[in-house]
Amino acid sequence: MPEAADIRIPVHPSLIVEDRSGDRYVLVASVFKPDLSLWVFELHCDDKGVVHMSSLAGWRITGEAVNDEVPRTG
What we know:
Elements: E1 7-18, E2 24-33, E3 38-45, E4 49-53, E5 60-64
Antiparallel strand pairs: 1-2, 1-5, 2-3, 3-4
């Protein structure tokens, strides 16, 4: 039996989110993983590439992203 494909729902506009340590990511989609029966968040990060997280508890939204680019801090 073939594996079911992930269901990906884009977040528009993409949002800049910041984790508890101050690292910034761009939230681009909500993805359902049928093999895990789990919804996850798809985030983009310059250092880590594409990251999937099951929870963003404690994170904060800091703005809207332009072209899904993670803004530089500093």
